[in-house]
Amino acid sequence: MISRRDFSKLALATLPAAAAFGRIDSKVHGVQLGVQSYSFRDRSLDEAIKAMVEIGLGECELFAGHVEPDESHADVHKWRKTVSMDEFRKVRKKFHDAGILLYAYNYSFRDDYSDEEIARGFEMAKALGVGIITASSTLSVVDRVDKAAQKAKIKVGFHGHDQTSDPNEFSTPESFEKAMAGRSPYINVNLDIGHFFAAGFDPVDFINKHHERIVTLHIKDRKKNHGDNMPFGQGDTPIKPVLQLVKNKKYNIPANIEYEYEGADTVAEVRKCLEYCKAALA
Question: What is the per-residue DSSP string for the chain?
Answer without folding.
Answer: ---HHHHHHHHHHTS-GGGGGS----EETTEEEEEEGGGGTTS-HHHHHHHHHHHT--EEEEEGGGTS-SS-HHHHHHHHHH--THHHHHHHHHHHHHT-EEEEEE----TT--HHHHHHHHHHHHHHT-SEEEEE-BGGGHHHHHHHHHHHT-EEEEE--S-TT-TTBS-SHHHHHHHHTTS-TTEEEEEEHHHHHHTT--HHHHHHHHGGGEEEEEE-EE-TTT--EESTTSSS--HHHHHHHHHHHT----EEE---S--S-HHHHHHHHHHHHHHHT-
